């Protein structure tokens, strides 16, 4: 009943107000103290290129400074949350001269790591609404958020190993959020887990129907706005900077590992095989 009432209220009241922006791939709207940040590259399953990463950095910065916002719902447009780093971008970088490609890989992973740190340090509660796939770097975005709400068709995976890559940030955040045993299983096997399995692990509440994903995430975010903002900020700082005191240095090291791994023959073959839709032939 609460979710139905929330949805009706959302429809009945004035439309959510968009924050003025020049961003190309991200939309931001605010409703009743909750901002919704939407990744908007549905044709690529919201794959992360440098433009989307930069737009997300801008969006979280804008929302951080927006006084009327007390919590954030983080979603992807279309049928997926985020399919990870755009492998077309990695292939384009691989085609550059070696000294240029290494510099570009480091820049890409550094910018992505800075985005993760920005989400982790955001003083406002961030709820990731996961519909469809959250894969690789997309899973890292979900794990950097404070909480996740999953639709019944949501699927999570850390699949870098299957592409000959190193998902450094994803593995680091898996270990931080879910513990070493689960991180090892997902990062080393590349296995995909569905919403029911994620719920069984205690990562999320009961998965919801697809058409209820925003409502459920907004409901959770709204509940988190009922406490004093100072208390929320202090507790989040304790969780992400106190309990996870090594997290940020680990993320920096993970970015370097991911960039270095992109220079290997296995990574080149894994990326090419994925883009050519064929099984990889590992060197």
TrEMBL record:
Its EC number is 4.2.1.17. It comes from the Bacteria. The keyword Cytoplasm does not apply. GO terms for molecular function: enoyl-CoA hydratase activity. Gene3D superfamilies: 2-enoyl-CoA Hydratase, Chain A, domain 1, Lyase 2-enoyl-coa Hydratase, Chain A, domain 2. Keywords: Lyase. Pfam families: ECH_1 (PF00378). Belongs to the enoyl-CoA hydratase/isomerase family. This is Putative enoyl-CoA hydratase echA8. It comes from Stieleria marina. The gene is echA8.
